[in-house]
From TrEMBL:
It holds the Pfam family BPD_transp_1. It is found in: Cell membrane. InterPro entries: BP-dependent_transpt_permease, MetI-like, MetI-like_sf, OppC_N, RCC1/BLIP-II, Reg_chr_condens. This is ABC transmembrane type-1 domain-containing protein. Keywords: Cell membrane, Membrane, Transmembrane, Transmembrane helix, Transport. It is a multi-pass membrane protein. The lineage of its organism: Bacteria, Bacillati, Bacillota, Clostridia, Lachnospirales.
């Protein structure tokens, strides 16, 4: 009680509280005094709001896959350029999860999520003047034209071919497990995993090649006379170079599905795919481009006024150029990272910094999938509880009010339904139906079956409460007034036992969530690509994942445990608030 702005700390008996406030307020007061229950309620509400509100802004394509981003540990170091390089940079190249840069003194720097082999930078390289970065290896050249490589060392990728040694090098490039060198005479030398990337050096035979650019599947060569030569053995969409631009190309860039060519008048030509409407060049860009670079699904252009423009896919904010970027002399975009170096050597970065909870084996963000998975798991649990409550209240109310033969019949039906095991039944139905229903249909089936098989417990509880209430005076008065029996049951008796029903519903909600997660974990519930906490754990059953990729199972497990435990603790606290003597029994 509050009196004149001060809290009345004098304890009051139950009789005094009932005289001063309603039963509902008494329940709320007792519940608020239970710190465990209130803390659990706050935890569950936070998880619930995160799962249902954050996906509105943090959108995710359920079919998204990216092999270059798979099994990445949690962290935000992809763009953490060392302070020694940040104001003295000459060139920076990005890998899928890391960056490599050289300063004006020829010193090499690394940052981001690096493998052990990538950390082994060769000693005594001298002054490095050029670098090229592949999926998980680096190729570097010093001022004397000597080549160095480190990182992935299979398929002879770590061995410089004899054809290159002792010869002058014009430019270098690196792709997915492949290294490419353009010699002074314009010929190409490639080595590495020929099965990983479709690049054939003989396609540019007898051509005076200036430079080579690659994406994750193939590459193109630009000749000194401004022509593009496709290097793929098989025909691809990149081969369709417009005839009218051959001989006018100054520079070019490749995304996964599109090629952009910079012509001699500063305009851009493009061909290939048009995902993310990438071929729509922003206003004010065409005709003012100085150089161009590209990542997996976006393009970055350096303009003649020293500013930068990016467009295309923006799922990792790779097109969100920071305000105030000016006097830029060099831009580099690879994968989902961007680097801009101004005339003083200062570095500006934007794009993918890392992942809060890492990525899974498909390159998908674990954090985003946890949000969608929690949404699915809680939706299944909530709908199942609603179905079980509706059936349980109807059956229990009728059985408790009419008693006698009606009660016996309905309770025998409840015992039969209660004896049916849910998980074996769901496994059988899933095996019989298989792929005959859509994924949405499978989810609806799980919710309906779980709700239908969960109502007997609710019915027993409602029946017991109605049996006790039906003998009270307000029921007798309602009968005397001629109120219909169905109205007496559902408008007068059931509302009086609703608090007990709510307590049971909170506990049943946690049980339904665990059941759905268990079913998905066994592979018979919600299936890919739709996430749930259960099928996220299903992908982590191997010892390799448990030991090496711990983030894939630790975070979903914690979320599921926090959610279910908090619901149970809140339900237990609510039960004690409704019936304080229950803890004594």
């Amino acid at each position: 009680m509050l009196r004149k702005g001060k809290k009345d700390t004098k304890p009051k008996s139950i009789l005094e509280e009932e005289q001063m406030q309603s039963p509902f307020r008494t329940i709320i007061q007792h519940l608020c005094e239970n710190k465990v229950a209130m803390g659990s309620a706050i935890i569950f509400i936070v998880i619930f709001l995160m799962c249902f509100i954050l996906p509105i802004w943090m959108k995710q394509d359920l079919n998204f896959q990216d092999p270059t981003q798979k099994n990445i540990a949690p962290g935000f170091s992809f763009l953490s350029v060392p302070k020694e390089l940040k104001n003295n940079a000459k060139e920076i190249e990005a890998g899928p999860t890391f960056g490599i840069g050289i300063d004006n003194d020829g010193v090499v720097y690394e940052w981001g999520t690096l493998t052990d082999r990538l950390k082994q930078i060769p000693a005594d390289m001298g002054k490095v003047v050029d670098i090229a970065v592949g999926q998980d290896h680096v190729l570097a050249m010093n001022e004397e034209g000597e080549l160095f490589t480190w990182g992935y060392n299979r398929m002879n990728l770590n061995r410089i071919p004899s054809e290159v040694q002792g010869k002058k090098v014009k430019s270098i490039a690196a792709g997915y497990q492949v290294s490419i060198v353009v010699l002074e005479d314009g010929s190409l030398v490639t080595w590495g995993n020929e099965n990983a990337v479709d690049i054939v050096a003989s396609k540019a035979k007898d051509e005076n090649v200036k430079l080579v650019r690659t994406n994750i599947s193939t590459g193109l060569a630009l000749t000194e006379d401004g022509r593009l030569i496709p290097l793929a053995k098989r025909e691809t969409a990149f081969d369709a170079v417009p005839d009218e631009i051959q001989g006018r190309i100054q520079d070019f860039a490749m995304t996964d599905k599109t090629v952009f060519a910079l012509l001699d008048d500063g305009t851009l030509a493009s061909w290939g795919g048009n995902d993310y409407n990438i071929q729509k060049i922003p206003e004010g860009v065409d005709g003012h481009v100085v150089s161009i670079s590209a990542g997996r699904n976006h393009v970055t252009a350096l303009l003649d006024d020293g500013t930068v423009a990016s467009w295309g896919g923006n799922n990792n904010k790779q097109c969100k150029v920071p305000s105030g970027v000016k006097n830029i002399q060099r831009v580099s975009s690879r994968y989902y990272q961007n680097y801009a170096i101004d005339e003083d050597g200062n570095v500006t970065t934007w794009g993918l910094k890392g992942y809060l909870f890492g990525t899974d084996n498909m390159g998908r963000s674990v954090a985003l999938r946890m949000l969608k998975g929690g949404q699915m798991t809680m939706t299944v649990g909530f709908v199942s509880v609603i179905i079980s409550l509706i059936i349980g209240i109807i059956v229990g109310g009728i059985a408790g009010y009419y008693a006698g033969k009606v009660d016996i019949l309905l309770m025998r039906v409840a015992e039969v339904v209660g004896s049916l095991p849910f998980i074996p039944l769901a496994l059988i139905l899933s095996a019989l139906i298989g792929n005959k229903v859509s994924e949405v249909g499978r989810i609806i089936m799980i919710m309906v079956i779980l709700g239908i098989l969960s109502w007997p417990g609710v019915a027993y509880m409602v029946r017991a409460q109605v049996l006790a209430e039906r003998q009270k005076e307000f029921v007798t008065a309602a009968k005397a007034l001629g109120v219909r029996e169905r109205n007496i049951i559902f408008r007068h008796i059931v509302p009086n036992v609703m608090t007990i029903i709510i307590v049971n519903a909170t506990l049943s909600f946690a049980t339904c969530m665990l059941t759905e997660s268990g079913l998905s974990f066994l592979g018979f519930g919600v299936s890919e690509p739709i996430p749930s906490w259960g099928n996220m754990l299903n992908d982590c059953r191997s010892s390799e994942v448990i030991s090496q990729f711990w983030w894939r199972w630790i975070f979903p497990s914690i979320a599921l445990a926090l959610c279910t435990i908090s619901i149970n603790l809140f339900g237990d606290g609510l039960r004690k608030a409704v019936d304080p003597k229950s803890s004594e029994r």
